[in-house]
Design goal:
The chain is α/β, with parallel strands linked by helices. It has nine helices and eight strands. It has a five-stranded parallel beta sheet, with helices on both faces. The protein has a three-stranded antiparallel beta sheet with strand order 3-4-5, covered by helices on one side. β3 and β4 form a beta hairpin. It starts with a strand and ends in a 13-residue tail after the last helix. The relative contact order is 0.22.
């Protein structure tokens, strides 16, 4: 089995950027599980399915209209349509938070997330909200990235601005806090650090510093490439 690195944390903590760079430097495959839930929210919206309609969501995920794939580890395709940018809007972020709390959605996507990780030829870095607690509870390395509310909101605002979305930072902060509350209080797979996760506060760190620290820890835990792939995996 390939080695697994799990990166969890709230929105705006830097998970996606750090996971992608860490995977590149380790030579691993990146699996953005947050993008999977965002794609579900977008697919439901396009199909006219309410984000809290369990029966309809289950039917949607079982149907041929939900065909999710990844291209070059960077682009997200939904039924052949490139939705990489469409799933990153504030509205779809809220939808992702809602659908990710639905037991039917989590149950149906759990196998897909594990398959994507196990299929990685050299190893995988998975990032999300419950990778180290639910998806791969015995991952080889677990990180929980966090940062102050204000720092996370500022990063998210900057990201949206780069994509042409103008929004006040106070609105981003309010939406972020609502999502944090929903994610941490949900009954199914709430957002929290795994008991054995390494918590990294990125508030005062730049991307390079965070990646360097995570890379140092990951290499010390994984050992040389020849000794990898012998760890137990959750079934």
């Amino acid at each position: 089995m390939p080695p697994i690195v799990a990166i969890d944390g709230p929105a705006g903590a830097g998970k996606s950027t750090v996971a992608r760079e860490l995977a590149r430097r380790l030579g691993f495959t990146i699996v953005d599980t947050g993008a999977i839930y965002r794609a579900v929210a977008l697919a439901a919206q396009r199909a006219g399915v309410a984000w809290d309609d369990d029966e309809a969501l289950g039917t949607l995920l079982d149907g041929s209209q939900f065909q999710l794939s990844f291209a070059d580890d960077t682009r997200v395709l939904l039924g052949g349509d490139d939705v990489t940018d469409a799933i990153r809007t504030p509205e779809i972020s809220r939808g992702a938070s809602i659908v990710s709390a639905r037991p039917v959605v989590r149950k149906k996507l759990l196998g897909l997330q594990r398959e994507l990780g196990r299929r990685a030829p050299r190893g995988a870095v998975l990032e999300g909200r419950d990778i180290g607690t639910v998806v791969f509870p015995d991952a080889d390395v677990k990180f929980f990235l966090t940062a102050s509310d204000e720092a996370r909101a500022a990063r998210r605002q900057s990201e949206l601005k780069d994509k042409g979305v103008a929004i006040d930072v106070s609105e981003v902060l309010a939406d972020q806090r609502r999502r944090d509350k929903d994610d941490s209080e949900r009954a199914i797979a709430p957002l929290k650090p795994a008991s054995d996760a390494i918590v990294v506060d990125t508030t005062a760190m730049d991307l390079g510093q965070v990646v360097d620290e995570c890379l140092r820890i990951a290499r010390s835990r994984l050992g040389p490439p020849a000794g990898r792939g012998k760890s137990r995996r959750s079934e």
